[in-house]
Design brief:
heterodimer, A: alpha/beta, eight-stranded mixed sheet, globular, B: alpha+beta, two-stranded antiparallel sheet, 2 helices, 31% strand
């Protein structure tokens, strides 16, 4: 598994596959693969994956668990970096048969920067992967090679005659790394759907969601601001390529749209079914008085703002709730929520956790306090897969959801003004840019910021001090991927 | 809907739910276990006559239990307050405001929820 000369052999095509790996999983893999072995030159391991489907059946492959190989299952063989005995190989096939989950061969080229598969990798690993595809043909299997900062993969999709390369591998954490194939500068989803269909992997007829989704723009904006070059040389391509979702284009969402356009985000996917009303004009950035009479949709206001700043942008703006187009949300690399309810926030967090997407929540409220001036408060929360969720942070709890449910339809016109939405959205965009570019160098940073609108102060929420580093009990790795319904039978009840 | 008589000696309360819905399935989301009752028969006169239902047998949204339906069901003598539009397990569901007492068996919960449409 040495002699890194990937590129000598024809590369497989880029398929409509995205791989998402939570950073804690990658860290666990790196920690194991870096351990010296008594005689093997390197280590290998297995990664169980689960799956989800984005628009048009595009595959999301979600790393779930890493399985280290016991030392005694390595064989001595000087011709290769690591040789694994038949016992370990048979165990992988048994695992695939038992779990019906996809499995990936994992190894490490321990240097920074791009990596790829060596001729030895390409000779040794595909037969193993093929044995898994025979054992469980309905799950995708593959091979993954990590470097200390990047990754490459080949994926055998169900029904396909050969492997494809993923159009993106995301290492999801703080910061989040989006890795694109070396040869892909412009990704055209529709073209890829056709290409993979030729391999027999997905239906050739694009769904309505897929038609909306294509094409994805990955070219940098025509005019690029040198004033943000401090973000790093890779920042603009990453921001240009990232798909960023926004649920809710009201007071907070309109600021998000505007700022993301200025930052250079080309692929915004935003969801809102409302039209501009008179009562929105005190805070809806980009809305005009004439929009009220015209009943302009909020997505049109967003389109006007984005395309006014970024003529090359191809925003995907959906005039309905995200819940009606959830596959489009799943395809996002990062999602902002600017919604009115705790239940809405919970639903967004569930969806994002399920598909391994960082979620940034913003919101504000004004509370009446008898005998005192009104209190304005808000929050910015980053819900990062693998880390504390909004339930762990006690921002969400049953009592809040119950109280809200009992007041259903009675929310009325809650106080909202433009400036706190601007503060919250600006802070959230700053976090997103740092997340995608890593320009501050912060790592594993939990984000739960409280905004005191009366004093204008934003500070870390005290809850962070007592949170600790325990894994989130609400969203374990096993909860990732499309829902799994288990049949209840008399026999299963007897076994309980 | 009549609640099946509890089988003498039956150890699991979900056994009764299985009698109501032989295709019963379960799934977990955000730490909550839900039970899917595919194509559940609604009370006579309700439309549609059958609909997928999702039972949350634990407290949620201030209710002791909730029965979510894949679509809004009409019929019955009650004025229904559809106060639950929710996304669970990657599917959109609807629920009426309807309370069940604490301490019920799952099949009893379903039967009482269905009274809303009778």
């Amino acid at each position: 598994m040495s002699n890194l000369v990937d590129g000598l052999a024809p590369e497989p095509p880029v398929g409509t596959v995205r791989i998402r790996l939570v950073r804690s999983l990658v860290d666990a893999m790196l920690a194991d693969l870096r351990r010296p072995h008594a005689f093997a030159f390197e280590r290998v391991g297995w990664m169980s994956v689960t799956t989800g489907r984005a628009e048009d059946g595009n595959w999301l492959i979600l790393g779930q668990e890493y399985h280290a190989i016991p030392d005694e299952q390595y064989l001595s063989d000087d011709r290769v970096g690591a040789r694994i005995g038949t016992e370990a190989i048979h165990a992988t096939v048994r695992r695939v048969l038992a779990t019906r989950q996809g499995l990936f061969h994992v190894h490490l080229h321990d240097f920074p920067g791009q990596t790829g598969f060596s001729p030895q990798d390409l000779a040794d690993q595909p037969p193993l992967v093929t044995s898994w595809t025979r054992a469980c043909p309905l799950a995708p299997h593959g091979m993954l090679v990590l470097s200390s900062t990047s990754a490459a993969a080949r994926v055998w999709l169900p029904g396909a005659s050969g492997p494809v390369r993923p159009e993106q591998i995301a290492i999801v954490g703080y910061p989040t790394t989006l890795i694109a194939p070396r040869t892909a500068s412009v990704v055209e989803d529709a073209a890829q759907a056709t290409h993979v269909a030729e391999l027999g992997a997905v239906a050739a007829t694009p769904s309505e969601d897929a038609k909306m989704a294509a094409p994805i723009r990955t070219q940098p904006p025509r005019v690029r601001s040198a004033r943000q070059s401090f973000l790093g040389a890779h920042a603009q391509p990453v921001l240009s390529r990232a798909r960023i979702g926004i649920a809710g284009l009201g007071g907070g969402g309109s600021h998000l749209v505007q700022q993301l356009a200025h930052v250079g985000v080309l692929n915004v996917r935003a969801f809102d079914g409302d039209t501009v009303e008179e009562s929105n004009l005190n805070r809806l950035v980009g809305a005009l008085a004439s929009d009220v009479a015209k009943k302009t949709s909020k997505i049109e206001v967003a389109r006007r703002m984005i395309e006014g700043v970024l003529p090359d942008a191809r925003p995907l703006l959906v005039g309905e709730r995200w819940q009606e187009h959830s596959t489009l949300l799943r395809g996002c690399d990062l999602v902002f929520g600017s919604v009115d309810t705790f239940a809405g926030r919970h639903e967004l967090e569930v969806a994002c956790r399920r598909y391994g997407i960082p979620y940034i929540d913003i919101g504000m409220d004004v509370y009446e306090v008898p005998g005192e001036p009104p209190r304005m408060a808000g929050q910015i929360i980053l819900s990062m897969p693998g880390c504390a969720c909004m339930w762990c942070l006690q921002f969400l709890d049953e009592e809040k959801l119950a109280r809200e449910a009992q007041q259903y339809g009675d929310a009325g016109g809650r106080p909202q003004v433009v400036w706190p939405n601007g503060v919250l959205a600006s802070t959230a965009v700053g976090i997103a840019v740092d997340l995608l570019t890593g320009w501050t160098g912060q790592r594993d940073t939990p984000v739960y910021l409280s905004y005191d609108g009366n004093t204008g102060v934003i500070r870390p929420h005290p809850r962070l001090q007592v949170l600790g580093r325990r894994p989130c009990p609400h969203y374990p790795p096993t909860s990732m991927g499309d829902p799994v319904f288990k049949r209840v039978s008399k026999e299963s009840l007897r076994r309980r | 809907m009549p609640v099946p008589a509890r089988t003498k000696g039956a150890g699991d309360p979900f056994d009764e739910l299985l009698q109501l819905s032989p295709e019963l399935q379960q799934a977990v989301e955000a730490g909550v276990t839900y039970y899917l009752l595919p194509n559940l028969a609604m009370p006579p006169g309700a439309a549609p006559a059958r609909v997928d239902a999702l039972l949350c047998p634990t407290a949620r949204d201030g209710y002791e239990s909730r029965l979510y339906l894949a679509e809004r069901v009409s019929g019955g003598k009650h004025t229904l307050n559809w106060n639950g539009q929710i996304r669970v397990l990657e599917r959109n569901w609807y629920a009426v405001s309807w309370r069940t007492p604490a301490g019920l068996r799952p099949a009893q919960m379903v039967a009482i929820h269905l009274e809303a449409f009778r």
